[in-house]
Amino acid sequence: MSKLIFVNLPVTDLKRSKAFYTAVGAVNNPAFSDDTAACMVFSDTISAMLLTHDKWRQFTSKRIVDAHADAQVLLCLSADSREEVSSLVDKASGAGGRADPTPVQDFGFMYGRSFEDPDGHIWEVMWMDPNAVPPHG
Predict the structure, then answer these.
(1) For domain 70-137, which CATH number applies: 3.40.50.720, 2.40.40.10, 3.10.180.10, 3.20.20.370?
(2) Model confidence over 40-54: pLDDT tens digits?
C-alpha cells in the first residue's frame, strides 16, 4: 500500500477554506468532514485536513501561529507541466489566495511558483522535466 499524507492545517473559517481548496482542485471527502473539519483530497495519497481552531486544540496544546506572519512549513505539490503550475497558482489567486509569496523558480528543467491560502499557509507548486531527473544510483 502506498504511504498516505494528511496535512493538518488550522483554519479560521472552515467554509471559506473548503471553498478555496475546492477552487484549486481538491475534492471534499464527506466521510472525514463535519462542522469542525474537512478532508480535502488532492490525490489518492495526499489530503489536507482543514481543522477549526477548536478542533486543532484537541490534538495539541501548542500555540497556533499566525501563518500570515510566521511559517513552520512550506508545502509542495507536483504538477505535470509548467502550464499546470501557473494554472494552479492562478486558481488560488482567483479564489482569495495570494500568488507567489515565495520567489518564482525557473531553472529550465524545473519550474516552481507558490500560493498562500486565506489563512497564510504557503503551498509551492513545481514541475520538473522527467528526463532531467538523474537515475538513482
Answers:
(1) 3.10.180.10
(2) 999 999 999 999 999
